[in-house]
Design goal:
With 384 residues, the protein is mainly α. The chain folds into 2 domains: 31-155; 162-383, MetI-like (MetI-like fold, Orthogonal Bundle), CATH 1.10.3720. The chain is built from 14 helices and no strands. The protein has helices at residues 12-15, 18-27, 37-67, 73-86, 91-108, 112-157, 160-199, 207-222, 225-239, 249-274, 278-286, 291-321, 333-344, 348-383. α10 packs across α12 (291-321). The radius of gyration is 34 Å and the shape is flat. Residues 1-18 and 23-27 have low confidence and may be disordered.
């Protein structure tokens, strides 16, 4: 049997080198991945520095709590837990080092595909380590800002003894904000729907109504809420009208907020109604439904689905606008906090009000996000 000089044995002679040939072809399939251990090592060094900085900041916070007379066993346990949790910042970088070494080993063995996968995992973990380290640095800068200059910022905004002593008084006044918000929101929903329907008044006979509704929306969307509250809260009592002059300050605030936010909600209703295809109206009218029946039974129920997220955003805005009622002397949470702050020359009570608004606002904001995401998923399913 003759052997080819250039190609070796025709069959059996090549079987021994088949694995090496395929490995060589795999290796030549593309450029080998770069060494991922060096970036991972840099990420590990950065994470270690951040962890050390975190421990130093926690120690400073412990000293600050002692100064503010807020240190205790619970605070010590919490700071200890945070110190231990900071060590998890090292985990992505350590895993990145592991995958980087694995990529180098697989590359030496000729497994290019496995080396690429391991190198990509190392790069991903390296960037995760850098990202979390950067976020941790921002948090540390904020904490250092509050404890800087001998706790100057913390003393002004977070004087815990004053917060504890004034909390119940501010919480009691905060119920005034809740009351104004709840009553005004019900009235806003009703009034906004009336104005929106008026803007859709059909035919030449409805033209004056449409013009008046449009004029109202344009005027009250142009005026700041604080001006409306001031004019209504101080102006109407000066008229001396029998019914109006006996209203409470909360009633004037509710009226002003209803008129102001009703203009915005009317536009939300209008957008929701106009989002329904005109064929729905045509079909309803062809079945004998009147114009109002078409809106009530066909258009508005379908438009409500599109209105809910923006309506909830309007609720959040109205909820925050209740703090503006202090301009007419209503003792709400903000006004109560200002009184306490002026007596103690400290703004910590105002911080308490801010925290209360945050507590009731963030869950609503997340609910809006979930509703919007649910609508997006439903639309994507409908497109398929």
């Amino acid at each position: 049997m003759s052997f080819n000089k250039n190609h070796g044995p025709p069959s059996a002679g090549r079987s021994g080198s088949a694995g090496e040939g395929s490995a060589a072809r795999r290796f030549r399939a593309g450029a080998p991945p770069k060494d991922a251990t060096k970036p991972a090592a840099a990420a590990l060094a950065v994470a270690a520095i951040v962890v050390a900085s975190t421990w130093g900041t926690l120690k400073s916070v412990q000293g600050a709590l002692v100064t503010l007379q807020a240190a205790g066993p619970l605070s010590g346990i919490l700071l200890g837990v945070l110190g231990v949790a900071a060590l998890f910042l090292l985990l992505p970088a350590v895993r990145g080092m592991h995958f980087g070494r694995q990529a180098n080993r697989l590359l030496a063995e000729g497994d290019l595909t496995g080396a690429r996968e391991a190198a990509q995992s190392a790069r991903d973990l390296t960037w995760i380590a850098f990202g979390f380290s950067a976020a941790q640095v921002l948090v540390l800068l904020v904490v250092e800002f509050f404890i800087a200059n001998h706790l100057a910022v913390s003393r002004v905004f977070f004087l815990l003894p004053l917060i504890r002593s004034s909390f119940l008084l501010i919480l009691k006044a905060f119920w005034v904000n809740i009351y104004i918000f709840m009553v005004a929101e019900v009235l806003v929903l009703i009034w906004g729907l009336i104005v929106a329907v008026a803007r859709f008044a059909p035919g030449p006979a409805g033209r004056p109504i449409r013009l008046l509704a449009t004029f109202y929306v344009d005027i009250f969307r142009s005026l700041p809420a604080i001006i409306n509250i001031y004019l209504i809260g101080f102006g109407l009592p000066l008229t001396g009208m029998p019914f109006v002059k006996n209203l409470s300050e909360e009633s004037f605030a509710i009226l002003a907020l209803t008129l102001t936010n009703g203009a915005y909600v009317a536009e939300i209703y209008r957008a929701g109604i106009e989002s329904i295809h005109w064929s729905q109206t045509a079909a309803a009218r062809s079945l004998g439904l009147s114009y109002m029946q078409t809106l009530r039974f066909v258009i508005v129920p379908q438009g409500v689905r599109n209105m809910i997220p923006p309506l909830l955003n309007s609720f959040i805005s109205l909820q925050k606008d209740t703090a503006l009622v202090n301009v007419i002397g209503t003792i709400d949470a903000f006004n109560q906090s200002i009184i306490i702050a002026s007596n103690h020359f400290n703004l910590s009570p105002v911080t308490t009000v801010a925290v209360l608004f945050i507590i009731i606002t963030i869950p609503q904001a997340r609910l809006v996000d979930r509703l919007i995401e649910r609508d997006r998923r439903r639309m994507r399913v409908g497109e398929r």
